[in-house]
Amino acid sequence: MNWRRNLGYGLGLLALIPAVVAAEVLPWREKYEFLTGKGGQEAVAAHGQGARVNGMEWRLKSITEGELQEEFSRPLPPRTKIAVVVISVKPLTDQGGKWFVTDGTCKIAATDKAGRIWQPSFRNDLAPKSPHSPTCRAFDANYNMVPLPVGKELTIQTEYVVPADAFPTLGVQIRLTPNPATVRLNP
């Protein structure tokens, strides 16, 4: 009779293990998807085409080579170039416009055909001053976040220091939350 009692305990533990694993893993799923770009929706578009996801349309406007703006700037590492990336986003729905003032965030990165990824540079001497936004946020004259009206375009400019061999194949990857999505804008 001992084996029947032990079998009952064993089956109970077997049922409990998946529940404990799910309780530990599921809350981290969104963070994992955001950090790795895996999971959620994915939209891909070629240069000049729009990628639509979560009620917004994203476009790659241009990727140009920049140059140091100040004579006494810290030099770039050898065999690197400055990539000035200009993208735009336009809400297609009211919900897409409200994303700009809710908990939504985006993480923009430059990518190449080999799968390498670069984060934006924090240096402010890589490109001339621009009227474009450095982030995925829309602000009013008092620097308060505002929803973007349906159909109004927000232009975003970011700068990267990338290897010279990667420059010809650069594209952009944008990871969005809270509804996990990845937008890939190819050259």
Describe this structure in words.
This protein has 187 residues and is of the alpha+beta class. The protein has two domains: 1-36; 41-185, Immunoglobulin-like (Sandwich). The chain has three helices and nine strands; from the N terminus they run H-H-E-E-E-E-H-E-E-E-E-E. The chain has helices at 2-25, 29-36, 94-98, and strands at residues 41-45, 50-53, 56-66, 80-91, 105-111, 117-118, 154-163, 171-177, 181-185. The strands form two sheets. Strands 1-9-8-5-6 form a five-stranded mixed beta sheet, with helices on one face. Strand 2 (50-53) and strand 3 (56-66) form a beta hairpin. It is elongated and about 85 Å long. It starts with a helix and ends with a strand. The mean pLDDT is 82.
Describe how the helices and strands are arranged.
Blueprint lengths: L1 H24 L3 H8 L4 E5 L4 E4 L2 E11 L13 E12 L2 H5 L6 E7 L5 E2 L35 E10 L7 E7 L3 E5 L2
Parallel strand pairs: 1-9
Antiparallel strand pairs: 2-3, 3-4, 4-7, 5-6, 5-8, 8-9
Question: Could you say which overall geometry the principal axes of the C-alpha atoms support?
Answer: elongated
Distance between the termini: 70 Å
The string of secondary-structure elements, in order, is HHEEEEHEEEEE
Query: What is the strand content?
Result: 25-35%
Largest beta-sheet characterization:
5 strands, mixed
Number of helices: 3
Look at the helices and sheets and give the structural class: alpha+beta
Radius of gyration, in Å, reads 22 Å
Number of strands: 9
User: How much helicity do the residues have?
Assistant: 10-25%
CATH architecture of the largest domain: Sandwich
Protein name: DUF4352 domain-containing protein
